[in-house]
Amino acid sequence: MLQLRDVEKTFFAGTPNSVHALKGVSLTIDEGSFVTVIGTNGSGKSTLLNAVAGAFPLDRGAISLGGHDITRWPEHRRAALIGRVFQNPFSGTAPNMTVAENLALAARRGLGRGLGPLLPARLVSELRDRVATLNMQLETRMDNPIGTLSGGQRQALTLLMATWRRPELLLLDEHTAALDPKSADQIVRLTDRIVSQHRLTTLMVTHSMQQAATLGNRIVMMNQGRVLADYTEAQRRRVRAEDLVRRFEEIRRDERLDVSAAEMLRAAYV
Amino acid sequence: MTLLVSAWTIGLILSLLALGVYISYRVFAFPDITADGSITFGAAVAASMITHGTNPLTASAVAFLAGSVAGICTGVLHTRFKINQLLSGILVMTALYSVNLHVMGQSNLPLLNAKTLTTYAESLGRRISGRDTANLLGWTVSARDLGSLILAAAIVLVIALIAFVFFRTNLGSAMRASGDNAQMIRAMGVSVENMIVLGLALSNGLIAFSGALLAQYQGFADVQMGIGMVVWGLASVIIGRALVGSDSLGNALTGTIMGSVLFRLIIALALRWGLNPNDLKLVTALFVFGALVLPQLLPRVARASSLRSGAGAQAGSLRYTGGK
After folding, report:
1. Chain B residues lying within 8 Å of A116, measured CB to CB
2. pLDDT tens sequence across B287-311
3. Which of B168, B173, B189 sits opposite A109 (nearest CB)?
4. Same domain, B247 and B117
5. What is the nearest CA distance from B283 to chain A, expressed in angstroms?
6. CB neighbours of B199 closer than 8 A, spacing ≥ 6?
7. What ipTM was estimated for this complex?
């Protein structure tokens, strides 16, 4: 179970570039639930994900995961509990190392790393078998540098790597945004399969309303650093992509109204 | 032919420096200038211990540890105190200058009558050839030169094998991944900061060990001997990459060693042909400059010339439509 309590973060505080990215976000995600987070650019959805991953210290609030208070854990320590897939397919893999080496590094996520061989024969065959389940013919390219593969192939492998050892929480940061539509579709199906197969607690950020409406069992909508709407199970089942889009248009209209009202007041009274 | 044999030996000894530079510069992309100080540090520690009667093997091993400590200092300055990579190295290198003077007690420490690894090498050479001189591929060399060459080759072979095995362990692979994609390996639960500190410890340990061997081979340690050694190591690494043309671990390690020997041979020949020794560092720096810039410059020159011909064709077509 992931729990965020009153999480607050301002970047570049005290400078003209100050950004109040998270304004007291509280969120509880139950064991085994798959939450999609949507929001406009700058709504704080990626910041929320990075706060959980530990990319920066919080200004206020607390985060606990699987019974541990991880608020003060550095990023690499949280990685023992968290599997991550990044938006950029280049971020999740070490390009000059082989496919097998990358997977083997992931097979020891959060474990100690000593002087045992990275690729013992037993592990090599296990790696090949699990890669074969992707149905992407990558099992024939285990000894190629992973940087020679396409974005979609690398993202599929990153997903496999993030979930090799069952994570307490899987974080997906717009992980299909940089892919072509066909690869994106493939990764979405793979995500669905892996998450439901291992019953993983998952937090996914996306800007695709379609993905939000089809994947997962709960939708969290963010705007300006706050949770704006939270569609849980029953409501979530009735929500269609169009409803989400309409909701966003409402928000945008309200914002524009706010701005024009402020203009009017200023013109009248200042 | 003593010149060539000695160039081979020094090339092999300095290939350990090149391996150290390979770890910092290629594996971690960390331009670690500590090397200039740590190679002297290794030489100073080994020379000082040997003149006090320590066994040369023990003294060389302690030199490795001393270099590691210097590397750890640079690593900690960079990772914990967030000091720029180059500046961290410069600070430690500068501090080491004083440390080296203290360790040696004077600016030059001769090892003339002391028992060093070269003493072992000489008796090894004598046992192999059976007399004071030996025949190496038709050349007459002294038993001392022959023994030193064999011993240096053996040491380099063993260390290269250890490095090859190490970089394929869980720990060594995590180090390689830290240099390749820090974000990825952090998400796999590895502290990239610790890996950098450990990597610089290994790198400078090797470099100091190389300095210890060099001091024993040339018969003295000098506080100035480290100047320009990073650039020397870089040149070896770059030549090595050009020689093997591949980044796989085995090739990279072999290439680095070959690069160091080849570079030393080129320098020895150039000196023989009348290169002023005072110009040595200048030539080395120019060489590394060329090696760094040419790969970017050559495609640009090619593109510029193809653009020029392309522009001509375009101008022609413009004229043609103009006429229409």
Report:
1. 169-170
2. 888 888 887 777 777 777 666 655 4
3. B189
4. yes
5. 32
6. B23, B24, B27, B28, B30, B75, B175, B178, B179
7. 0.87
